[in-house]
Amino acid sequence: MGRVEGSAVKEGGTRGGPRGYARLEGAIPIVYTPGLEERAAEVWDLLETGASALSEILLVEPPELEALLVADEDREEAPRENERPYPPGLPYFTRASRPPTLVLPQTLSPDFRPRTDATEALVAWHELAHAFLLRDPMPRSPAWLRELMPQALSAAVARKTGLPLEEHLERIKRGQGLAVTYQNRADAEGQMAFQNLLLALGAAAVDEFGDGFLGRLAHALWREQGIVDERQAEELLAASLGPGGRDWLGSRPEFQEG
Ligand SMILES: [Zn+2]
């Protein structure tokens, strides 16, 4: 908080964002529904912190990107690839507009769990990480790897910026392995369990190996031409972790059967 005063606020409508929306300049400019000034300032802080930390971790400049903070009642007007709007309260990254846009809801869906002081930040950094990773073409890869990257990156940003994660991680329910959790992700609760398992795994990897593996993994994926299958995904992850990476992954409960 408090870093917003220096940035320019002006009426939107000329570039990026519907007419009448307001705009906050920054590393990631924010276009927002008038009336959401306070939430816009919070989001602005999260994206500034997130963009600079992600740049350092991934060794790339922030992508060309805007954030659109949308009032709940204007949700259907937000840019998106699909014809039908997403369920309420889901942030997403879209290339349906120029520049590409992070669409952030006024109110986060209650499906995001656990709810702690870290939830809002982790969700915003997750979507921002997707935008960073998609700045260059990514090969097709297993869903767990595609979502592990932004989950581990948001945990890494938290570690780098001093946002405490302990309470959040403690409240994540554990039990099943990656394979079962992956299969059970049809509904919102299953999807959250899948994401939370990847957050726990990502945070543990960052604590064990430092955040350098995320840059190595991202650059390895950007170099990859073909499709990355299950076996290659595990190999790339293990190699990016560095010495001991393979044994460590083998010892993790997420990679055990059941
Ligand atoms: Zn995601």
Give a brief rundown of this model.
By secondary structure, this protein is of the alpha/beta class. The chain has helices at 37-58, 119-133, 143-161, 166-170, 178-183, 188-209, 212-223, 230-241, 245-251; strands spanning 9-11, 22-24, 30-32, 66-70, 92-94, 101-105.
Main features:
single chain; 258 residues; alpha/beta; six-stranded mixed beta sheet; 9 helices; 6 strands; 47% helix; 9% strand; binds zinc ion
Give a description of the structure:
Residues 1-16 have low confidence and may be disordered. The protein has a six-stranded mixed sheet with strand order 1-2-3-4-6-5, with helices on one face. A hairpin with a 6-residue loop joins β5 (92-94) and β6 (101-105). It contains nine helices and six strands. The relative contact order is 0.11. Helices cover 47% and strands 9% of the residues. α8 packs across α9 (245-251). With 258 residues, the protein is of the alpha/beta class. Bound molecules: zinc ion. Zinc ion (ZN) binds next to α2 and α3.
